[in-house]
Amino acid sequence: MSNRRHRVLIAKPGLDGHDRGAKIVARSLRDAGFEVIYAGLRQTPEQIAVAAVQEDVDAVGLSILSGAHNTLLPAVARLLREQGADDILVFAGGIIPAQDIAGLKESGIDEIFLPGTTTHAIVDYLSKKLGHQPSV
Amino acid sequence: MTVQEKPSEAGAATAAADASGRHLSGEVRRGARAARERWEQASRSAAEKSTPWKEDFTSLSGETVSPLVTADQVKSEPLDDIGVPGEFPYTRGIRPNGYRGRLWTMRQFAGFGTAKDTNRRFRYLLDHGQTGLSVAFDLPTLYGYDCDHEMSRGEVGKCGVAVSTLADMEQLFDSIPLAKVSTSMTINSTAPILFAMYLVVAEQQGANWKTEVRGTLQNDILKEYIAQKEFIYPPRPSMRLITDQFAFAAREVPRWNTVSISGYHIREAGSTALQELAFTLRDGIEYVRCGIEAGLDVDEFAPRLSFFFNSHSDFFEEIAKFRAARRVWATVMRDTFGAKDERSWMLRFHTQTAGVSLVAQQPINNVVRTALQALAAVLGGTQSLHTNSLDETYALPTEGSARIALRTQQIIAHESGVINTLDPLGGSYYLEDLTEKMVEGCFEYFRKIDEYGGMIEAIEAGYPQREIVEAAYLAQQAVDSERRLIVGLNAFRNDEEVDIETLYISDEVAEEQLQRLEEARHQRDDGAVTRALDGLRVGAAGEANTMPLILDCVRCYCSIGEISDALRDVFGCYEESAVF
Question: Does residue A2 sit within a domain?
């Protein structure tokens, strides 16, 4: 395991302005010792993929509550693959109906967190996936 | 201009500390205090025998709750502060006959898919006894993008109805008489465009703008920078668009509420009840200030300002918030702004139950949560109400779940009996004390915001945004650590799968909408479109009122993206520096 801190990009794809969840997750990950880059609002899939590669992140967390998940989330995973960055883990959270989850996972979204998820659950998941030693 | 509670008493903190129970006669005050001391002793010895089952009793906002409030602890003056309904400072309500005169308007927020889909839902809700309309627009409409814009990918018709041109608005209100129904539109950055479209449809139907057309625009741009984040232009030109609408509507559409100053989104973003109250009212003060600076008389536009609050799960905290809101607003309008018209003093508000309180697990329980929140809004004296549906942690509501939400209001109105008497909780020692604390806390926040130079400056410095992020984080920690229990989520769980029907919006909506936009573009007079858009650019760059110019654009079927782009050319776009 390298000594470098694991880097995570948190982004809000599309036009959705609901950033409460994204910010709480960003802060919880930072408190757990991850290096967090918050890309902010209104990011296109292209902007997110470029930022992920440029910032050399280990994971990308996407928050979406607008209903555009079936279009925007697979696009991020596809663009990362096209740039040869398919080692970057992509996870997501938001208002996502049950029937959409299987399709999103097939498209390359590793995990989807739904309403009611604790911040511990997200920290645990990412720590396990990235081999990260939580700082708390 | 700073806003103080009672200018003559500013700084008299020591006097305030001794103010508890000052309205009581010496004898009654002493008696109440003696009784409280007896109770305190009894309570201590009871606690020694069996420790309370919980360590701290705090409100949802994290405030410590007093175990008992007695008469000698209440500071509110029964005549000056509490008074009677219909009289300044309206703590007990703005109408002398309360819900006996008229029930609150049951106004369910709805919108999805194309204008045709939403028109069908509107007619369904009206057929089931709903008394006003409330339109939810999709994100491209809210942001001023046409459905073929790159940023609209996947968003068309998803979280509201898609409106690109006047043709969509005509279809949205097809067979709905705009002379009779009042309509609320949740629209902010693009509000003048949708307002213009609505007015043209009303005109086509033969409804009179001056006497018949009634409704509300949300149009609260300040809370967009603070919480909801659906801004386009920087704050100052955005405020100019709003004051243009104040001036236009006061003259042309006098029964229209030009802004609904909203705490709802501030609360959903994670604020406490007090922050919701204080930031919202301080936003309201900023609108009044801008209106006056734009040369309007305060009594010309202030009676058409309305408010929109959240009703969350902490029952008494919410009721106190609503009562405090009326008292603070009346005081500020009369004493700081010198409004003479009583209607300028009266805070009228819409309420929506707290979307963020809905729980995905065991979703039927959400009906109970929503009912309690709705009851708090009614006991707080709301003028209109939206109750959330049980399935909204999954998707937009189905027809069936939207009907249960409406029925919840009807049960409160017609079965619970709470409407029979006005402000039934008025005079409760606990509630009056809580109301008083909300009022004091609100003025304290006003002082902090004044130190920044005003609300726009505070927003530019990120102050309210930071306060909200911090409160949201603490609230999440309380749930994660199980200091706050949520039934079905971190307590009383069932492990069975949730099986409820949800609304599904297909991607065909986007194709249909694109087709409609292309048709409208094909049929219109291109010369007129160019002239109208150029006229708007020139007017916006100068000092003309933009409303008549936007009406010109709308009438010749300019699209929402084209009109917004014309204004982007002149005003530029706003980028926030995000904090987490």
Answer: no
Residue contact B580–A72, C-beta within 8 A = no
Rg (CA), chain A: 14
Q: Considering CB atoms only, which of A41, A70, A99 is closest to B229?
A: A41
Query: Residue A63: what are its φ and ψ, rounded to 5°?
Result: -115, 130
Domain limits at B278?
Answer: 104-480
Closest residue on chain B to A69 (Cα): B154
For residues B117 and B161, the answer to whether their CB atoms sit within 8 Å is: yes
CA closest to A36 among chain B residues: B580
Mean of pLDDT values over B108-131: 90
B63 domain residue, yes or no: no
Cβ of B505 and A67 within 8 Å? Answer: yes
The pair of structure tokens assigned to B110 is 């709805």
Task: Decide if B541 is inside a domain.
Answer: no
For A57, the domain range is 7-130
Number of independent structural domains in chain A = 1
Q: Mind listing the pLDDT tens digit for each residue in A25-83?
A: 999 999 999 999 999 899 999 999 999 999 999 999 999 999 999 999 999 999 999 99
**CA geometry: angle at B282 spanning B183 and B18, to 5°?**
125
* Interface contact flag, B140 A15, Cβ < 8 Å: yes
Q: Which two tokens stand for residue B469?
A: 């992020």
Flag whether B56 is in a domain: no
Cis peptide before B89 (omega within 30 of 0): yes
Q: Which of the four pLDDT bands, split at 50, 70 and 90, describes residue B117?
A: very high
CATH no. for residue A37?
3.40.50.280
State the Cα–Cα distance between residues B395 and B412, nearest whole angstrom. Answer: 26
CB contact under 8 A, B396 and A67: yes
Domain count, chain B: 1
Beta-carbon contacts of B54 under 8 Å, excluding residues fewer than 6 positions away, are none
Q: Which residues of B touch A30 (CB under 8 A)?
A: 580
CATH of the domain at B121: 3.20.20.240
> What radius of gyration, in Å, describes the C-alpha atoms of chain B?
25
Q: Which residue has the tokens 């003093």?
A: B345
> A91: which strand partners?
A61, A111
Instruction: Answer whether residue A15 is part of any domain.
Output: yes
ipTM > 0.90 (yes/no):
yes
Residues 6 or more apart whose Cβ sits within 8 Å of residue A102: none
A136 belongs to a structural domain: no
